[in-house]
Design goal:
- The protein is mainly beta.
- The chain is about 5% helix and about 45% strand.
- The chain is built from five helices and 60 strands.
- The strands form 14 sheets. The protein has a seven-stranded antiparallel sheet with strand order 6-7-8-16-12-11-10. A six-stranded mixed sheet has the order 5-4-9-15-13-14, covered by helices on one side.
- A hairpin with a 2-residue loop joins strand 34 and strand 35.
- The chain is elongated and about 130 Å long.
- The protein starts with 6 loop residues before the first helix and ends in an 18-residue tail after the last strand.
Length: about 850
């Protein structure tokens, strides 16, 4: 039985035919291709007939049809010399011409390595593959060239369509060739359709192009960019008059990637150095070499292998390839430009952000929200986008979502199937919310990075990190009277619990429980954050979340000892705190119950002014059966007091019936508050060495009388269109400022008490509102006695300005009582040098300082 021609024999047949010249007419071109195709087709038909029982019969071969267009040459990009020719059989010729009219894709009509499309399914017998090149695949519909936007590709100016039919199996390939003038690229789209009755499985397609970018004998150099599934060549053309570097590449834009190859030894024996026979092509389809061979040859064979999904009868699947060219001042520039060109053609922008921001510290239980934003920044859609993001170690997944497509979580891997994203599509957002777990060691770095797989881009997001901070919760309990002292029946004990976050991040779900001590009754309770309830003798406060930057949370309980308690009973109290992740308790607070009653009565002036010297009186008395020793009286404002009288028997014991008197002096300061509240405290020890304490509070209403002064200065002489700067000093006028600022002694009667002033506004009638420059040396935002704050204001002199320029500065403030103060400066003068006034110089103005 005779065997069908193998691919190398078919090459011999094709190479004996005369080459098609680009200058031939369209009719001659169509006739040449038509006759050659018929001859090859007839030979193949006779040779394949003998094996027809082993494979499905192919559709009948149809004659070539003419190109429907006014011209066979379409200018590709006006900015370059590149041109494109599309022949009736779908072959792209003279794809990219350099300035010397060399083909950057060698599309010799008789060269099988020009452009080769080979397909293989498992249903092929032996080493058989279907190879479509120069007419092995026969068009069944005409090519149509459009010069206006078409379909979903408004940036493309051409769309040529060809349908190829297999000679071995029942399937056909529909080709669309789309040119992109803006990007100097061509997209070749292939739709593989199963036209038979059986399923086609394990399909592979090889797309091979002979690319030439060299102008010298040094040859092209091959590269592979896995992130863009791009195989390309570049060359340093030192003799080029315009551009020294050229680059040309082929990328799989849509489809399942399988492999690639580049070989530069087309003219080296044996010819099997690159895939040319059915056997070689089949091997590359099954196991691509994924190698680049750079030899000193001017022709390189580039191929890309893609998987074809299983096709049931009537089913169609797409593939798409991008071909782009670029040039530059050097090979590296041409390479960079080629990558940029492909990114303009198909590109996916991805960025990951986090809340809290990347690099910050987080605490156990604190949620971290990762947000991934995907947008199409190219011209063509990106297809089959899948985002995978692993839940970071030391965290648990809380929630996840995606704004387009679907999302699932399997174990610790979250996968979002986004699908297709057009250049006009909205940004797709994927979010993950995680929380660090309680068992994680502080200082651990939590990292997260998402990975994106699409057609044709494989990439990843930026890396986002957080550091797990230390977790700390401080709980301190104090009491009034102080812990360890004695208390009487009916005497209130106030317990205060202070909670603060001393770690990083936050502590969550804080709950404080405090039991009312035995031998006491509960009076009141409160909490400064959250809610509080009392059930029986248990008080529970739900605080919630406490950040490291939060204010201290205060919880209070007020109790009183009951009269039926036995003297000497120890009253104890301790609170317990439960939170995520901390469980702790406060310190223990104790008091001793007895019948001792210690009282303190404090008296003093009700009103005063700055500089007044006040005398406070403290009267200490005792009721009960015990005595108190080591008596000490202090005042929160005046400090220590001096004993005056009361120890009748001079035994240094405060006894029932005695009244001891203490006094303390205090001079009112300018910085004291309007309502001066001070507390006197008497402390001592009973005969059992227990602490006893009593307090009393007194309030004095203070009045203030500060004086506000403002002085001004500025240039004595100025010119038209000149911008002049005026300087103003706002002074809290007291004895100290009298000497610091050299103010007039004649104003000694108006010296103020130096109490602080809050400045609200400083305005010049000429230059407008003034800006603060310096002078607040203690940075307390109030104008203290002896301070002078410097303000400045600028003014541009216009042609219509009066001569001289005059202005008055007004300063406004408030004293500590809230009363408004106003100060006005003397008039400041600035004379103008006018054009008709000659060059005479005016004497500077002497400014008066002081109120």
């Amino acid at each position: 039985m005779s065997q069908p021609l193998n691919l190398s024999q078919r090459v011999t047949v094709l190479q004996t035919a005369p080459k098609t010249s680009p200058k031939k007419s369209l009719a001659q071109l169509a006739l040449t291709v038509f006759l050659g195709s018929l001859a090859v087709a007839a030979a193949l038909f006779l040779l394949l007939w003998a094996t027809s029982q082993k494979i499905q019969a192919a559709p009948p071969i149809r004659p070539l049809l003419a190109v429907i267009t006014n011209t066979t040459v379409i200018t590709h990009t006006a900015a370059t010399t590149h041109q494109m020719r599309v022949y009736a059989n779908g072959r792209i010729s003279n794809q990219f011409l350099d300035q010397n009219n060399q083909n950057q894709i060698d599309q010799d009509g008789n060269d099988i390595t020009g452009t080769t499309i080979a397909v293989r399914f498992d249903q092929h017998t032996g080493d058989n593959v279907d190879v479509g090149v120069q007419g092995d695949f026969i068009p069944t519909t005409p090519i149509t060239l459009y010069t206006s936007p078409h379909n979903n590709y408004p940036a493309y100016s051409e769309d040529s369509r060809v349908i190829y039919a297999s000679k071995a199996l029942s399937y056909q390939i529909t080709q669309r060739t789309l040119a992109t003038p803006a990007n100097n690229c061509v997209i070749m789209e292939l739709d593989i359709e199963n036209t038979g009755s059986i399923s086609l499985t394990e399909g592979k397609l090889l797309f091979m192009v002979n690319i030439d970018v060299a102008l010298s004998e040094n040859g092209d150099i091959g590269y592979y960019d896995p992130a863009r599934r791009l195989v390309y060549l570049a060359d340093e053309n030192e003799a080029a008059p315009l551009y020294d570097g050229f680059a040309m590449g082929v990328a799989l834009l849509q489809g399942s990637w399988r492999g690639y190859g580049i070989n530069g030894d087309r003219n080296v024996f044996p010819p099997e150095s690159y895939p040319i026979t059915d056997f070689d092509i089949k091997n590359q389809m099954i196991t691509p070499s994924n190698t680049i061979t750079n030899l000193p040859a001017d022709d390189h064979i580039v191929w890309i292998v893609a998987n074809i999904p299983d096709l049931t009868s009537g089913q169609t699947t797409p593939l798409a390839f991008g071909l782009c060219a670029a040039n530059g001042a050097s090979r590296s520039e041409a390479q960079d430009e080629l990558i940029d060109t492909f990114e303009k053609l198909v590109n996916l922008a991805v960025i990951k952000t986090a809340t809290p921001a990347s690099g910050s510290s987080v605490s156990v239980g604190q949620q971290i929200t990762y947000t991934i934003a995907l947008s199409n920044t190219g011209d063509r859609y990106v297809d089959n986008i899948v985002v995978t993001d692993a839940v970071p170690a030391a965290t648990n997944l809380v929630t996840y979502s995606v704004s387009q497509g679907s999302i699932t979580a399997t174990g610790r891997l979250v996968t979002a199937t986004v699908g297709r994203l057009y250049a006009t599509s909205d940004t797709v957002t994927m979010t993950l919310v995680v929380a660090p777990v309680a068992t994680t060691t502080p200082g651990v770095i939590i990292t997260n990075q998402a990975f994106i797989n699409s057609e044709p881009i494989i990439t990843q997001t930026n890396l986002v990190t957080h550091e797990l901070g230390t977790v700390g919760l401080t709980a301190t309990k104090t009491a009034t009277p102080t812990a360890g002292s004695s208390v009487l029946a009916g005497q209130q004990i106030t317990y205060t619990i202070a909670l603060s976050n001393t770690g990083e991040g936050y502590v969550d779900n804080i709950v404080v429980t405090d039991a009312v001590p035995a031998a006491t009754d509960l009076i009141t309770y409160s909490i400064s954050q959250g809610s509080i309830t009392a059930t029986g003798r248990l008080v529970t406060a739900t605080v919630g979340r406490l950040y490291a930057t939060s204010d201290t949370v205060t919880m209070t309980l007020v109790v009183v000892p009951v009269a039926t308690s036995t003297p000497g009973t120890i009253i104890t109290n301790q609170a317990f705190i439960n939170s995520e992740p901390i469980i702790t308790q406060t310190n223990l607070v104790t008091h001793e119950f007895n019948t001792l009653g210690l009282t303190l009565t404090k008296t003093g002036p009700l009103t005063a002014a700055v500089g007044d010297s006040l005398v406070y009186s403290f009267t200490v008395a005792l009721s009960g059966t015990k005595s108190v020793t080591a008596v000490m009286v202090t005042d929160s404002i005046a400090g220590n007091t001096g004993y005056s009288s009361g120890d009748v028997n001079s035994n240094n014991l405060l006894e029932t019936g005695e009244t001891w008197v203490y006094t303390a002096a205090y001079t009112i300061q300018p910085t004291d508050t309007h309502l001066l509240v001070n507390t006197g405290t008497v402390s001592g020890k009973d005969l059992s060495n227990n602490n006893v304490v009593a307090t009393d509070t007194h309030t004095t209403t203070l009045s203030f009388d500060p004086q506000l002064v403002v002085v001004s200065s500025g240039p004595a002489v100025a010119n038209l269109n000149e911008t002049v700067v005026f300087t103003f000093i706002v002074i809290n006028y007291d004895m100290q400022s009298l000497f610091l600022f050299g103010l007039d002694l004649i104003n000694i009667a108006s010296i103020g008490d130096g109490s602080p002033i809050s400045i609200t506004q400083v305005t010049d009638t000429l230059a407008g509102e003034a800006a603060y420059a310096f002078g607040d040396w203690n940075n307390n935002s109030t104008l203290d006695g002896g301070e002078g704050w410097v303000y400045t204001a600028s003014y541009t002199i216009q042609a219509a300005a009066p001569n001289p320029l005059t202005g008055v500065v007004v300063a406004v403030g408030r004293d500590m009582e809230g009363d408004e103060l106003t100060a006005t400066s003397d008039v400041h003068f600035t004379y103008l040098n006018l054009p008709d006034a000659g060059n005479s110089t005016f004497m500077p103005i002497i400014f008066k300082n002081g109120p």
